[in-house]
Specification:
Layout lengths: L2 E2 L1 E3 L2 E3 L6 E6 L4 E7 L3 H17 L6 H17 L1 H12 L3 H21 L6 E3 L6 E9 L2 E5 L5 H15 L2 E5 L6 H13 L6 E3 L4 H10 L5 E5 L2 H12 L4 E5 L5 E4 L5 H13 L11 E5 H15 L20 H16 L3 E4 L18 E4 L6 H4 L6 E7 L2 H9 L6 E5 L3 H10 L4 E4 L18 E2 L4 H6 L2 E9 L14
Parallel strand pairs: 1-5, 8-9, 8-11, 9-10, 11-12, 13-14, 13-18, 14-17, 16-17, 18-19
Antiparallel strand pairs: 2-3, 4-5, 6-7, 7-21, 12-20, 15-16
Helix pairs in contact: 1-7, 2-4, 2-5, 2-6, 3-4, 4-5, 7-8, 9-10
The chain binds ligand TXE.
Ligand TXE binds next to helix 7 and helix 8.
Length: 493
């Protein structure tokens, strides 16, 4: 099996230490690919290449040129989207249908940033000082490190790559060591699109070695990270030594509030969609269902009835609705998580174990699970499980629903289901989350910002704010009629 290489300074190269890593198909535990295993030395080389390209290259000079190249990347992704979708399913186990949606979104994000690349050249400010010009211009931050997770490997990479490129930065990306395949392919496409040498660099390998070097290296100006909260804290600490800019998206435990006056069938249907895509491995999964007492029992019954029919299997099979979890280690984490919930008093309404089916035995499958009788203080309600698990809590008043929803260290997203839009607006105003959906869940698009309150992180991806993350603002003041001030040393001693 040919070993896939890293991309440094415009060249595909093996890692210094000549080690490699096997990439595992989570559906059957088989090796699908081998990739070179980068180390700290490779990270340093990649940073140096990005530094040189930024300090001595031309990438930052023309926003129009950058827009043209980023548009080309969007077109190439559009051209190769089926191949990319298959690769993503192979790597993550998610259904091909989901991977296809991801690729549409990914091409759309590159296109969105290509569109706005040259649309904001800065602004003239009304100067309070006569005969002067005051203007604000936007400049790239410099060398950006981008560390991405395994759940939406290419989507998360794109949310970082597209704005960073459009803003004129150079970068080093490190995808999750377990899902690098689509990111490798998109680096090939960026090369084909004509991104100049050294502007984009790709290192592969583990977080503790490569990731740590990238986060602390003094030649890096910004670290953008999507992943777990523990790793986010380490990165923030490592980056603090040289006061790098940091942007963190650290997941969530997202409340989904259903009022008794909501459209029952739609709310049931969407409560399932909110969680079970990609087996619940979504930072914004609505895993914390908060249901008004009057409809609680009927709601649980309706959910269980639907969950019974969810078809587990290979992401490549057309009738599969849910694939496996990403890895053996992650499966074990989800098993322990549900077990703790049961010990703490939650009731398993359905699921709560691995499936028995023989054909799923080699994969990392866990059954879609609903836990009732959940209380806010429970670990399963507070911690992000990142699996196909819904916890259900009850409420009786609007204030109680909001208090429950906000009782979390996280604040990424949440949902409210009601036909009373005034009530929805009252809830929205009090919910401490970066995104709140009313009568919907898990909707995102390139134009709107994405990111968290509280320990879900800081900074925003997507939208105009996503571009601003990668820009410095420079105030330029030009005095058109300079005069002496005569303050220092004018009085003879
Ligand atoms: O992610 P890590 P893990 C959550 C989810 C999951 C938990 C842990 O709850 O159960 O995080 O998952 C790199 N310096 N999310 O441990 O470690 C690593 O190589 C620099 C939420 O698999 O956060 C990978 O590229 N980098 C989430 C990336 O960090 C380091 C998505 C993410 O891995 C590093 C995934 C270090 N010291 C998991 N250590 C979301 N927000 O969407 C690791 N990495």
């Amino acid at each position: 099996m040919q070993i896939k290489k890293q991309f440094i300074d415009g060249k595909w190269v093996y890692a210094e230490k000549n080690k490699s890593r096997e990439i595992i198909n989570p559906f059957n535990n088989e090796v699908t690919a081998k990739v070179t295993e980068s180390d700290k030395a490779d990270a340093k080389k990649a940073i140096l290449a990005a530094r040189n390209a930024f300090d001595h290259g031309e990438w930052a000079t023309s926003a129009i040129e950058r827009g043209i190249i980023v548009r080309k990347i969007a077109e190439l992704i559009e051209r190769d989207k089926e191949e990319l979708a298959k690769l993503e399913t192979l790597d993550t186990g998610k259904t091909l249908e989901e991977s296809r949606w991801d690729m549409e979104d990914i091409a759309g994000v590159f296109a969105y940033y290509a569109d706005i690349a040259d649309k904001d050249g800065g602004e003239i400010i009304e100067s309070p000082i006569p005969n002067s010009i005051s203007k604000v211009v936007y400049e790239p931050v410099g060398v950006c490190v981008q560390i991405t997770p395994w759940n939406y490997p290419l989507l998360q990479a794109t949310w970082k790559l597209a704005p960073a490129l459009v803003a004129g930065n150079t970068l080093v990306m490190k995808p999750s060591e377990i899902t690098p395949l689509t990111t490798i392919k998109v680096f090939e496409l960026m090369e084909e699109a004509g991104v100049p040498k050294g502007v984009v660099n790709l290192v592969l390998g583990s977080g503790n070695t490569v990731g740590a070097e990238l986060s602390e290296n003094p030649d890096v100006d910004l670290v953008s990270f999507t992943g777990g909260i523990k790793t986010g804290k380490k990165i923030m600490q490592a980056a603090s030594h040289t006061v790098k800019k940091v942007a963190l998206e650290l997941g969530g435990k997202n409340p989904n509030i259903v009022f008794a006056d909501a459209d029952f069938d739609i709310a049931v249907d969407q409560a399932l969609n909110a969680v079970f895509f990609h087996a619940g491995q979504i930072c914004s999964a609505g895993t914390r269902l908060i249901v008004e007492e009057a409809i609680h029992d009927d709601f649980v019954d309706a959910l269980v009835k639907r969950v019974k029919n969810i078809k587990l299997g290979s992401g490549f099979e057309e009738d599969t609705e849910m694939g496996p979890l990403i890895s053996k280690e992650h499966l074990q984490k989800v098993i322990n998580y549900v077990d703790i919930g049961i010990e703490e008093g939650a009731t398993v309404a359905i699921g709560g174990k691995q499936p028995d089916a023989e054909e799923l035995k080699n994969g990392f499958f866990y059954m879609p699970t609903i836990l009732t009788n959940c209380m806010t203080a429970m670990t399963v309600v507070q911690n992000e499980g990142f699996g196909p698990v819904i916890t259900i809590e009850k409420f009786t008043t609007e204030d109680e629903a909001i208090a429950l929803a906000n009782d979390s260290i996280y604040g990424l997203s949440g949902g409210v289901w009601t036909k009373d839009l005034a009530k929805a607006e009252r809830c929205v105003a009090k919910m401490r989350m970066g995104t709140v959906w009313v009568n919907d869940f898990n909707i995102y698009f390139p134009h709107a910002p994405w990111g968290g309150y509280k320990q879900s992180g800081f900074g925003r991806e997507l939208g105009k704010t996503g571009l601003e993350e990668y820009q410095e603002q420079k105030h330029v003041f030009v005095n058109l009629q300079p005069e002496t001030i005569n303050w220092f040393g004018t009085k003879e001693k």
